[in-house]
Structures are given as C-alpha cells and as structure tokens.
Amino acid sequence: xxxxxxxxxxxxxxxxxxxxxxxxxxxxxxxxxxxxxxxxxxxxxxxxxxxxxxxxxxxxxxxxxxxxxxxxxxxxxxxxxxxxxxxxxxxxxxxxxxxxxxxxxxxxxxxxxxxxxxxxxxxxxxxxxxxxxxxxxxxxxxxxxxxxxxxxxxxxxxxxxxxxxxxxxxxxxxxxxxxxxxxxxxxxxxxxxxxxxxxxxxxxxxxxxxxxxxxxxxxxxxxxxxxxxxxxxxxxxxxxxxxxxxxxxxxxxxxxxxxxxxxxxxxxxxxxxxxxxxxxxxxxxxxxxxxxxxxxxxxxxxxxxxxxxxxxxxxxxxxxxxxxxxxxxxxxxxxxxxxxxxxxxxxxxxxxxxxxxxxxxxxxxxxxxxxxxxxxxxxxxxxxxxxxxxxxxxxxxxxxxxxxxxxxxxxxxxxxxxxxxxxxxxxxxxxxxxxxxxx
Length: 439
Fold this sequence. Notes:
Layout lengths: L4 H7 L9 H6 L4 E5 L2 E4 L4 E4 L2 H4 L8 H11 L13 H13 L6 E5 L2 H17 L8 E5 L8 H6 L3 H4 L9 E4 L12 H19 L4 E6 L13 H13 L3 E5 L13 H5 L5 E4 L11 E5 L1 H5 L21 H16 L2 H17 L7 E7 L2 E6 L2 H13 L2 E2 L1 E3 L2 E4 L7 H21 L3
Parallel strand pairs: 3-13, 5-6, 5-7, 7-8, 8-9
Antiparallel strand pairs: 1-2, 2-3, 4-10, 9-10, 11-12, 12-15, 14-15
Helix pairs in contact: 4-13, 5-13, 9-10, 14-16, 15-16
C-alpha cells in the first residue's frame, strides 16, 4: 500500500488502536488524505469510508462549513485560560448544544473527547450526591458488552473483558448487568426479553442498596456488543427505575449523538430523557477532538454556590472548552439543523436497511439492527466475520468488523449513489469472506 522504508521503521515505534502491530505492519493502511466519504492511502488508492473513520466524520471528511468555522476562529482565539476564563465561542456552544439536547439538559461542559466526558459524568454523579444529602451514593450500574472509553473510570464502567482484563484490578464501585441481547433466546418475544433486562437493572440497584448507587450508565445503541438496539419500552423502564430509587440515568451518546439515529440524540429517537448525556466523536465531524457533558439544569444548579462553601465541580481538563473545537461543533450542529440531516438519516437509513436485509440471502446473516444510518449486521458464523475483517480494507472499504457482526455509519451528507456503492462493496466483500471461510 505504498509504504516507504522510513514508514516501516516508524511503525515499529508506535501502536494502532486495539491492533496487533506485527500483523498490521505486514499490510499497513497509511492514510494520506480524505474528502467526503473517501480516504486515500499513500499509494493513491481510494477507500469508501462506511463508518466515518470510527463513528466520527458525521458530515464526511473536510466539510467546508466546519473547516471555514475553524479557520475563522484561528484568526481570533485558539486557546483560553481554563482557570481564569472561558472563550466567547465556547459559551455560544453551550447555547447551541443546550438548544438541541432533549428536555432541560442544557447545563453544558465540553472536554477533549468521549472518554473525558464519561470520566466527568462519573465524577459529576458522585459529587452531586455527596452535596445533595446522599453522600453514600457512589456505585455505577452499567452493562456487559458496553464500552465507555479507555481511561480508568470509563474502562471500569465498560463491560468488554478483553479490553480491560490486562489492566486489572479495576476501580471499585462498578456493577454490571447484561444487555437485552444476552437473554433473547430465553423469551418468546424481544419485548419480553427487554422487560426482563430492565428488571435486572432494578434488581442490581436493590441488591446493592439504592443509597449506595449513584448512576446507571448505558449506550442507547451498544456498539461493541454488535449494535445492540433495545426497545423504547426498555428505556422507559430504566427511566422509571432510576426515578424510583433516586439514581441518575446517564446516556453514553458518544457514538449515537448528532443525527446518526434519525434524531440529534438517540434519547430523542427512543423518547426518553436521561439526566446526563455524554457526547463526542461526531460532534466536530472529526476536525478537532471534542466531547461534552449535558446535564439537567437541576444537576447543574447543585454546583452553584458560594466560594466559602466550596460548591463547584472539582474537575477540569486543560483543553476543555477549546475555542477551535467549539467553533467546529457549532458548525456541525448548525449544518445538521439547517439541512434537516436527521430526517435525511431516517430516509437513508431505510435504504441502507433494505440493502443490508438483502444480505440474508447469503445464509450468514442473523439480524440487522440499529436506527437511522447507524446499523449493524449480526453474522451466524464468526469465521466469516474474521475473514471479512481481513477482506474489507483490501477491498477498499472501511467498516467496523467484529467476528460476530459488522457495522456501518456513513456520513449524514452521503449521496444515494455513495450509499449504493458502500452496499455494493459490502456485498462483494462479504461474499468473498464467505468463500475465504470455506462456507
């Protein structure tokens, strides 16, 4: 793929995320440029980006409005002193983001990425209860197969064993339950399965003692579990359970946020308002790293107090509220709103789902899941998934592939012809992977 001797030497001095470097270095993908829904490697070969890099390029690569906003901001202010002030453009982002979040989740703080946002939300929950008359509430209920980030708190909340077992022992205070997919073979309907899975969350809260539980953290659509997509009722039940036991409900929308599910946030898609939303990834369409926490006004108010009493959020990050990131995020939010790209995601999602459902004819597809353009395909044979992971990049398409499933999340701005090309390439790669797996 056009790798120079110097690049090969440098590959031995770095890592690619969650990837065995010896295997990667044998046939590395070194990306040189990108535009829209395409990447080009160092040899000039073009790749269809069916996953927005990694659920990031919500408007495609190098969207002109986002780039223009960052360039304009560079001429005015590129960094604000985080212990002394806040950038005017960051305050504008507080207004813009708070206007598109559900309910009254308009208390906003931005960070450098999704993991930072999750860390902040976990600390927010603990401090909130400590200064709200419930100092013993510190535990977090989350789900197996969930992924919330790579920092230690986020990793402890995650339920992906291989990604954290190498770093054990984990932080204490995190309790896991299974997602609905774990039980689906035990119930006659998906709805009944989801009711049981929601009840399991309440069972865990009660068993741990509600006065020790601060929050429940879930991804509305679970990525690492294979685009796990619960029912609307599941989330309504979680909301009722959390209200009943005075537990904060936190939605990890780092992947699902900013239009992918057919609404600005999956909370709106599923019709349930959490207490806190964590977001990132598509928030800047990948132009600048950014994440954010959006909390209910009442939660934010609990941190508004006198200096004498020390009532403030005891947390900070150097690049939180970064002016360039804020400018990029405003441009993304405005572009989605002005172009009604949430409706476009629903329309394009219907087309993509039809094309993916047609893959059942291959005999290796069990189910198509997801909402909007965030879709996953569960495979019946993990050997096919392993072969597809090897095949896809070589066939010129970037997917999220696990042995048991693969996922797509193309840019909201993609044209129908580009979506068709993505589906055609997936079908060809899947057929080749089936042959490679000896089926």
